[in-house]
Each structure stands twice: as C-alpha cells, then as structure tokens.
Amino acid sequence: MTQIPFLYHSSHWGTFRARMVEGTLELQGFERDPAPSPLLQNIPAAIAHPVRLRQPLIRRGWLQDGPGPDPRRGTDDYVAVSWDRALDLVATELQRLGAGPSLPADLPGRHVFGGSYGWSSAGRFHHAQSQVHRFLNTVFGGYVRSADTYSSAAGAVILDLVWGDAKRMSRDQAFWDEIAEHSDLVLAFGGLPLRNLQVSPGGTSQHSAENQMQRAAGRGCCFVSISPVADDMPDLPGLMRLQPRPATDVALMLGMAHRLQETGRVDRDYLERYTTGYDHFERYLTGQSDGTPKTPEWAAGICGLSAETIRDLADRAAAGRTHVTVAYGLQRSRHGEQPVWMALTLAAMLGQWALPGGGFSYSLGSMGSTGKPPLAVPLPSLPQGRNGVKGFIPVARISELLLNPGKSFTYKGETHRYGDIRLVYWAGGNPFHHHQDLSRLAEAFTRPDTIIVHDSVGTATTRHADIVLPATITAEREDIGAAGNDPFLIPMQRLVDPPEGPRDDFDIFADLAARLGCKDAFTEGRSSREWLAHLYEPTRSALLEKGMQAPDFEAFMQGEVVELPVSEGPSCMQRYHADPVANALSTPSGKIEISSAVVERAGLPPHPAWVEPEEWLGAPQAAVNPFQLVANQPRGKLHSQLDFGATAMGLKRNGRERARMNPDDAARLGIAEGDVIRIYNDRGALLAAAEPAEGIASGVVQLSTGAWYAPLDLPGSGRTCVNGNPNAVTSDIGTSPLSQGCAGQLSLVSVERWSAAVPEAVAHEAILPRKSV
Ligand code: PGD
C-alpha cells in the first residue's frame, strides 16, 4: 500500500508536517523543533468543524432595509446567498460609498475603517490583513488605519521616543544566547511564560526558549519571575518567584533604583555617556522634586513585597551581570508606558548594558521570536499599495471612533479627530474577542452603514456584521511560511481541498476588484500561485548572492524547508555602545532618554514615575470591586483562534473557561474547584469555572482571553458572557493620553459563586450567524 506523504505547513505556533488520512488530519511536529507546541493539536478540528462558514451570509435587516445604522446587529438573523449575489451586493455598496477606478482628490476611503486588526494566519501571501489593506488602497485610495498593536502600544510608543524603533531594537539581538552564556541574574517583569513563547506572528519553527533558560540556570544564573501568576515562569533550578500586587512593578523598580542610588552603585559613567535626563529623574527618585523619596519602604507600601526583599534584589542586581526584561502584559494596562520606561532606566543605572548578558530587553517573555538572531535575507512580502487617507486611530480606540465621529483625541503629544465612518471592513481579526468592554463595542457596531467581515468560522464578530464572506483556512491553500527571526522558509503545501463554499481572501478581493473595474490594479495580472512565485524571488536571489542553496520556486513548493542565514553583525545597541555619536539612536537626543520633553508635552511626568492607575488593589474602587482580574494570554490557543480545538477544549470545564484564584480567597467566598463563578463590575459580567490555585497571588483572579464571546441576559446578572470572555468586564480606556493603547490586562472586579441554575456554555457552532428558515 502506498504511504500518504506528510507535507510541510506552518502556523503562528509552529512549523509542522501533516497528511489527511481518511478525512482526519494527522500531524507531526517539525523535526528540527525541540519542543513542538501543543497548540498544533487544535488544527485538525478546523478541517470539518460545524463552526466553519460555508456560504456567504447577508443580515436580513440589511438586505431588507439597505445600509444604515442598525441596532439589530448582533441579534438579527441571516440569509444565505450565492457567491455571485454576495459579491454583487458588496460591489454595489462599495460603489455607493465611492469605490472605483477613478477617485476624487478627497478620497472616499476616509469614511472606511480598514484597520482590520487581528493575527490572521501564517503565510506571507494569504495574510488576510495584508490582503484587505491592499484591496482598500486599490479601490478606495486608502482607508482609516489603526496605529500600533493590541499586543504593544504603550510600550512601543514610549520606547520609540526614549530608545528608538521599539520593534527593531527588541528583535535585533540574540538575547537568549547571551543569557544562556553570560547572565548571572534575569529580572523578568511579567515572567517568561512558555505559553506566550509558543507563538510568534507568522510562525516560529523552533521552541528553544526553555532549553536556553535551563542552560543558563544550570550554569548558576538566577531567574526572578516577577508576576502575580506563579506559572509565568517554568520551574528552573534557583528560580525566585516574587508576587507583587498587580500594576505596582514601577514602585518596586523605583525602590530598587533608590537602593542603588543610596548605596552608590549607580553607574554614572554609563549614564553620562549613553543617556540623557538622569538628573531630572534622580530628583524625583530621591524626593527632591516631590518630597517623597522612593525608598524600598515606600515601594513596599505599594507593591506588597518587603523592603528587605527589594533591597536584596537591588543588591543582587548590582553584584553580577543582570538582564532586565519586561513582558508586553505589563504595558497592556493603564499607564503601561511607565513599567517599560522604568525597567529600561533600571538597566541603564546598572550600567551593564554594553556587556553580553546585561542590559534590557522588551517582550522576551511575550513572543517566540524575541531574543533570536535577526535574518540576513529579506522575506517574501505582499506590497499593500499606498494608503492616501491620513485619518487613523490608536488601535484600541475602535469603539470611540464609531461612537464619537469628530471628537478629538490625543496621540504622541498631538491632537487629532475621529473620522466619520460609514463602512467597516474586517478580515483576519476578531474584535468581539479582542476589544475591551464588549457591550460598548456592540453599541459602537450599530453605527456604521455597513460592516463586512471575512472569516473561516462564525465568531461573535461575524454575528455583528451585515455581510459575512467565508474564507479558507491555511490547510486548504498554498503559501510561503516565514517570519522575522525565524531561520526557515516553509513551503506551506495544500493539505486538503477546501470544502464547497469558502474561498481564499485574495480570490474574493480579486472578484470584487473586477466588479469595481480595478482587477488589474489589485492582482497585477497574477494568480495566487504566480504571486507566490513572484514573492519568493527576492529571498531566493538574496540566498544565491550569498552563495547559498536556493531551489527554484516549483522545487521549493514541492520540497523541503529552506534554511535562512542569520545576521552576524552587531546589533543596534552594540553599535551604539561602540560609538554613541556615530551610531546615535533614533530618539530626539540620539541617546537613551531618561527624561523626555515629548512625553512631558503629552501631559505625563517627564521621566518614569509611579502613576497610580484607577483600577488596582490600592485604589478607592477596590472597596467596591476587591479583586484584580488578570486577563492574560491563553495557554491552549492563540487568542480566540481554534477555541474549539482539542488542546483549547481540554483546558476548559464543561466548555467554559477556567478562572484561577488564590485558595484562601476561594475558601472565604465559599468557592470550590469547578464551581461556576460570576465575575462582574459595572461594565458587565461573565461566568467562569473556578479553579483555586496556590500560584495565584491573593486578591487576584486570572482568566485568560480567547473564549468566544456569548452574552446572554441572565436574571439577576444582566448581560453575561456565559463562556468566560474577560472582555465582558474590562475597561475600554486608553493606556494614557500619549499612547492610547489597550489597557485590557488589568481590571477591578467582584467575584461570587453562581448559585442559580447554571446555564450551559454556548457551543461554538451556536455562535454562528443564525440563518433564517
Ligand atoms: P484572533 O483570535 O487571532 O484575535 O486579537 P485578534 O483579533 O488577533 O483573531 C483572528 C481571527 O482571524 C480569527 O477569528 C480567525 O478565524 C481569523 N482568521 C485567521 N486566518 C484567517 C484568514 O486567512 N482569512 C480570514 N478572513 N480570517 C482569518 C488578539 C488581540 O487581543 C491581541 S494581539 C492582544 S495582545 C490583546 N490581548 C488582550 C489581553 O491581554 N487582555 C485583554 N483583556 N484583551 C486582549 N485583547 C487583545
């Protein structure tokens, strides 16, 4: 009997090989991956799950009454139509809004929100967000975009100002190798959670971080996990776990900084040569400017660790080679700039940045790609065309945009206005999972004339759309897998033919562009396969120029992964340390900025500072809502993707997300393992399955994001997500006037045992837009 061969493929959580055997997808981890991710086991469910969208759907109210604001979105039912009818309807609506081959100078795209934030899928060509951007640029001349990411907005904005291009700086140094070989102490604010390191946008072929941590720890390096959630760091020899109150890391860092200053261990030569503005910060640290010295005792009163512990940590940091790293999670909360800026300042004060294994990194605990060496060749990349529309929103201000056209907002020290949006076009994202205060988002989604969503599955977002177009999944199409800091180019082979119905996003857009008279501009005369061949070529040429093997496109798609060279040159920071004048940073002063005039102009303290957030355990609001909800990234899936897959479902209880809390807190509230609990505040409520867990700090409830949003009106509870999506209760407030990022990680909530009859979790397929009968 002939064996069915395993074919290569890729996902955000890893490269793999797979084959279809009797209707089932069999998977193997990539042979060069030391620890393939358990998330791979979510993929087989996607092939034929009832949650897959199979026909274009049009919301009944939109079909009957035409475009316009409509409170029925979210509750209306849908009419299934043929592809031809759906595309005709979409094209007519886009034309009504001004799309076409000749556009006025005042581009109609200014009324189109096309930010379309979301992780989409791996694959360089079929990446849905890139496709929708290219399409909107082609037919509307542009669109209102979103700036930054839900992952990192506060951190990226502050680091851009005080360190230089945050993304580039965090991705151009092999921190893991340095830590493994040289660090004595790693201060990990937010930990180094393996669940985050499983994933990276575009894919990650080698899950090697735990090996590197073990190598370092085996050599005697001490890792310090600083997080209210103990398993934010794997067990390691010599590991120290500290659990300060959530949102108080800045106070802890200031207490450490004060100790360094008081004991004369601040590296003033480093500060003088490489930084600017320390004197201003020092006056704040010592209390000269505000009367409050930021002593370890002061810090202890805020963060809950003892002054002794804070002093000891500072002493240890000064005694050896110390690497300071801060995870994205810390900045995904109010005043999220501060912990990132303060961690960078602490590293500068220690003065070991120019030495291997010392210094600062950002997002080492957040992305599988951070800390790996950058690549020395370009990757295939789909050109998105030119966006001629100037309007934008900071990424997490979507509800504000739709609810308040014309209202002013601030960003990076400047004032802008929200546009007037008539069309929302989304492909490759799930705002009804990722945005905060989802009841408010539902209200915002009633406002536009038309909302169009492409997805492969029927999420809560599709249920709020007027037109839903079913997309293929990666297993059903060919693509090229590749990602920054990942040393392989993967031929993503088609694993299974698509079922009747779904189409590739590219083909949908190509047919729409044809109806709008813009087909050639969109496709440039290429089919999907011709695009793949075209995009492959720059990488191949670069490999050949370096004298390396590079098969031609056809051989590549039929064959093996291609190994890519990594850069051996010095990183930006290594160049900067070698010559800070010739290799100045891209900050206003060219140096690391410990005080910033731009930040001050934006209305924030001019240097890193403890800025008390509204929702922390020391706030007046905690008297009403006494628990800090930590809504972090999930272990069993990427965001909301494949929430119905085997790994994700295996971690739920009766189909409901688990919320972990300290056993003493649970006992005090009469809550036992497996009880259903209600987590609520004045923004909303959700139900989750309680899991008392020793590793959760007192006063904290940890509930990861990702459960599919399923709001029901429950007696005595109001609108309640019965599947456990934390964004039912999080706050839709910007991180600060400077960055306006997502602050969804931390909120104050109340918790109680649900004592009424327990409603069942809503099955994923029941979230699909309801078809009329
Ligand atoms: P995903 O679940 O990845 O979430 O938010 P994001 O929207 O990225 O959604 C991707 C969607 O794209 C899925 O519905 C998937 O089916 C669809 N999709 C995948 N591939 C394709 C394709 O090829 N074509 C089409 N048309 N669709 C496709 C994630 C966001 O959530 C992020 S990045 C972060 S970091 C935030 N984190 C938090 C947090 O820490 N705390 C809270 N409270 N909230 C958060 N929200 C944010």
Secondary-structure map with pairings?
Layout: E1 7-11, E2 14-21, E3 24-29, E4 57-59, H1 60-65, E5 78-80, H2 83-96, E6 112-113, H3 128-140, E7 145-147, H4 154-162, H5 166-171, H6 175-182, E8 185-189, H7 194-197, H8 209-218, E9 222-226, E10 240-242, H9 249-262, H10 268-274, E11 275-276, H11 278-285, H12 296-303, H13 307-319, E12 322-326, H14 328-331, H15 337-350, E13 359-362, E14 392-394, H16 398-403, E15 408-411, E16 414-417, E17 423-427, H17 431-434, H18 438-444, E18 450-455, E19 467-470, E20 479-481, E21 488-492, H19 505-515, H20 519-523, H21 528-545, H22 553-558, E22 562-563, H23 572-578, E23 592-593, H24 597-601, E24 627-630, H25 646-650, E25 658-661, H26 663-668, E26 676-681, E27 684-692, E28 700-702, E29 711-714, E30 718-721, E31 746-753, H27 764-767
Helix pairs in contact: 2-19, 3-19, 4-15, 6-8, 9-12, 9-13, 9-15, 12-13
The chain binds ligand PGD.
Question: Would you give an account of this structure?
Answer:
The protein is an alpha/beta fold. It folds into 4 domains: 40 residues, no CATH class; 279 residues, Rossmann fold (3-Layer(aba) Sandwich); 201 residues, Dimethylsulfoxide Reductase, domain 2; 152 residues, Barwin-like endoglucanases (Beta Barrel). The protein is 29% helix and 17% strand. The protein is built from 27 helices and 31 strands. The strands form 8 sheets. Strands 5-4-19-18-17-6 form a 6-stranded mixed sheet. A 6-stranded mixed beta barrel has the order 24-28-25-27-26-31. α3 runs parallel beside α19 and α9 runs parallel beside α15. It is globular and about 75 Å long. The model has no long low-confidence stretch (mean pLDDT 97). The site of ligand PGD has 37 residues, from α17 and β18.
